[in-house]
Amino acid sequence: MSESQIAVALLHHPILNRRGETSTTAITSIDVHDFARSCAFYDVSPVYLVHPADGMHSLIHDMTDYYLNGKGGERNPERKEVLKAIRCVKSLDQIIEAEPYQLWYTSATPPGEMCIEASELKHINGKHLIVFGTGWGLDEENMPNANGWLSPIKGIGKVRHLSVRAALAIYLDRLGI
Amino acid sequence: MSESQIAVALLHHPILNRRGETSTTAITSIDVHDFARSCAFYDVSPVYLVHPADGMHSLIHDMTDYYLNGKGGERNPERKEVLKAIRCVKSLDQIIEAEPYQLWYTSATPPGEMCIEASELKHINGKHLIVFGTGWGLDEENMPNANGWLSPIKGIGKVRHLSVRAALAIYLDRLGI
């Protein structure tokens, strides 16, 4: 029996913009719902939304409150259950100061060293946080050191990366938990 | 070398509503973008959007035209490339009258018989169409007979199904092409 526990973070800062500069993106409602649902499906939690702005936290609170405490949850109890896993935090540091997570970063083009298959995580004891980027990807130079990177999802087609929602779903499936 | 060719359809009619009745759903822009992008990543095409209403086709045309022929494609050439795979059609019958597809249906709870793993498709010669439902799932009683169903994606968590965007991503990954 493995003692591995897995959580997920979606990072909106620090991430890269199209010019490769340190930047911040907005949280989108579809990411919140898809991340919450896919993680609930695979029993992965919590789902951390990382954004430095109070206003963005308020917006997510209003959106989820409709389901967690309002009419939305009466009509759609499953969505209420799913959204309970959402945690808004200001920074990745805030998460790892509170919980001893091992950090696993994701990218369509990770640095070569220290890549492991997602399926290996369940064999590594302890708490794991899989970190997904938005925008043009994680600004790793301004992030805490990772324990490693998950092996990238390789396509054979016309685009260099998937939507972050699709990447999350595939990595969760590959966890094999 | 396999002679298997794979395409995808997202069905908005006939699908089931929450009461199990035959129904129609709206096409959502996020499904169009995520389906187009995930399929492009795995070189799967075309991506058929099945909806009986002319107005819905016009809406999708306006949305994709911004990228295919307008300013959006100048700013985001990758999205232009990706959206070329989108085909709006009125019905599943319209697709299979034009192309000799073998039909593979998907569901979180498929009928027991005739399930195959997604990874098997590449070993079956010919043209394959993987059909995804919206709403409360495919209204199979009012659809053409399927060649079979893809084995369901099994979760261990709190919800009975993934978003259709997540399910698509996982099935494409599992094709192993």
Major sheet attributes of chain A:
7 strands, parallel
Look at the structure and name the CATH superfamily of chain A.
Answer: SPOUT methyltransferase, trefoil knot domain
Q: How many helices of chain A in DSSP terms?
A: 6
Largest interface between protein chains, with number of residues from each side: A-B, 33 and 33 residues
Q: Layout of SSEs?
A:
The structure is a homodimer of 177-residue chains.
Chain A: E1 4-11, E2 15-16, E3 22-23, H1 29-41, E4 47-50, H2 54-68, H3 71-75, H4 77-83, E5 86-89, H5 92-98, E6 101-105, E7 115-116, E8 126-133, E9 148-150, H6 164-175
Describe it:
The structure is a homodimer of 177-residue chains. Chain A is of the alpha/beta class. Chain A has a single domain (4-52, 85-175), classed as SPOUT methyltransferase, trefoil knot domain (Alpha/beta knot), CATH 3.40.1280. Helices cover 33% and strands 21% of the residues of chain A. Chain A is built from six helices and nine strands, in the order E-E-E-H-E-H-H-H-E-H-E-E-E-E-H. Chain A has helices at residues 29-41, 54-68, 71-75, 77-83, 92-98, 164-175, and strands at residues 4-11, 15-16, 22-23, 47-50, 86-89, 101-105, 115-116, 126-133, 148-150. In chain A, the strands form two sheets. In chain A, strands 5-4-1-8-6-9-7 form a seven-stranded parallel β-sheet, sandwiched between helices. In chain A, a hairpin with a 5-residue loop joins strand 2 (15-16) and strand 3 (22-23). The mean pLDDT of chain A is 95. At the A-B interface, helix 1, helix 4 and helix 6 of A face helix 1, helix 4 and helix 6 of B.
